[in-house]
Amino acid sequence: MEHQKEYHSMNLETKNGPLLLEGPVPSKELKALEFHEDLVAFRQPAQQHKAITEIADLPEGRILIARVENTIVGYVTFLYPDPLERWSEGKMKDLIELGAIEIIPKYRGGGVGKSLLRLSMQDDYFEDFIVITTEYYWHWDLKGTGLNVWEYRKIMEKMMQAGGLEYFATDDPEISSHPANCLMARIGSRVPPESVQQFDQLRFMNRYMY
What we know:
This protein is of the alpha+beta class. Helix content is 29%, strand content 27%. It is globular.
């Protein structure tokens, strides 16, 4: 399946000033931008900046960003699932993962995450794909926000729903290890029934199939 990257952008007014949302952004441009020091949810900022530029170089990799002038203050990543995760076991060419979404504290609560996801899904390309995201509470900034896991989960669900992703049940051990963890997905309008069936089999691998 050929990966086409259709660029979209929008301006978003927030209480802290305007942001430019755009993407997918190529690695060369990402390297030239500053990466905000408060983007620390997954790795140290310099390491995460390097990681997203590497994702942008993958055939299927897509990075959309929110920026103030030359500084990235938020981003979302799309790429094939990690080879160590069950979601890669079917080697599905039409299943892609929303791997990470992060916004610096200053711009949270202003709809930046929702807008980034809506912008991502403006790309007709995603109608050929099942987009999944796995939400684990240990990645959430509970300390910084003062929210409990259920309040944070509600915020994450609403944000993902803005991109058309819905809750899907699964017996994946890591997701099942805590009731706040969840799998969400969006099934594109052109995804064939056999791919949906394969996705269902990946969701439930521990039950007997009759």
